[in-house]
TrEMBL record:
Source organism of this protein record: Achromobacter aegrifaciens
Family in the record: Belongs to the UPF0065 (bug) family.
Protein name according to UniProt: Argininosuccinate lyase
GO molecular function: lyase activity
Coiled-coil region list: none
UniProt keywords, alphabetically: Lyase, Signal
SUPFAM superfamilies found in the cross-reference section: Periplasmic binding protein-like II (SSF53850)
Pfam families noted in UniProt: TctC (PF03401)
Amino acid sequence: MAIRLNLRLRRIATAAIVALAAPAAALAAFPDKPVKLVVPYTPGGSADQLSRVLAEGMSRDLGQPVVVENKPGANTMVAATQVARSAPDGYTVFLASNASMVLNPMLYQRIAYDAARDFRVFGIAAELPLVVVANNEVPAGTLAEFVTYAKARPGKLNYASVGIGNPLQLATELLKSRTGMDVAHIPYNGSAPALTSLMGNDTQLMVDVISTSLPLVRERKIKALAVTTSERLAVLPEVPTVAESGFPGFRAATWFGLAVPRAVPQAEAQRLQAALDKVLKDPAFRGRFEPLGLVIQAPRSQAEIDAYVQEDRQRWGAVIEANHIKLD
């Protein structure tokens, strides 16, 4: 009888140990199925290329496929809304940007998600630097010279952008406020017509992403006056920063990162972050994108990521409020 009781007690104890170990085993198993990376842009662009290489690298570390799903529409809001409403289990990841996490919530009067409440940005993967470019006929070889030229002609010069509320327009308005220039805004439907207007001298100035302006700068069809990063770019080493040009502290860039719904458990978010950080440290990954003008970021702690996003919100919020920009 005693032997039978001892055996029963052992079985109960074993079952209890297994039950206690089950949550830890389940946690350690994440992910145990493919992860979906929702990209709010069409295939083929720089953001899509970045996403696919990130997905490939993270797949190796996670031991599960990371599958890219392109979901363009409504200036990233279609994809952002979809991810915000997805199951908070770590299996749906969003290619976040300052458009989706910072600008859209401040610009649009009707938006179906709250970036700060609905998302956790767990990594900043790359910054896409901006460059200040000018028409070749403008008698200014530096940003300081252009500012002097513009101030002597208030309201008579134009700047091109790819649309109202776009990061490029906001960056130009930020530049105007810092330099005191009075330059009129001419919006275009895309970078190609905007750059055509610049080359044709219909507009004289533009703040553009480095990837689209770089070929024209190299072909001497437009000229680069300054870059908006805190340091000079390897692809344009002779072009000074805006800060070096007499406007200290100026910095503006678009960025791409990864985010999950805010309710995703911390352990799953940290596992995804570790996989992303491993890719960001890979020299081959950095070498692939930096010649295209993307500045791959070093891994940050969660506190540093939160501070980075909050600083971005403060910077652009001031520009939006000062210019009374609201979109339907």
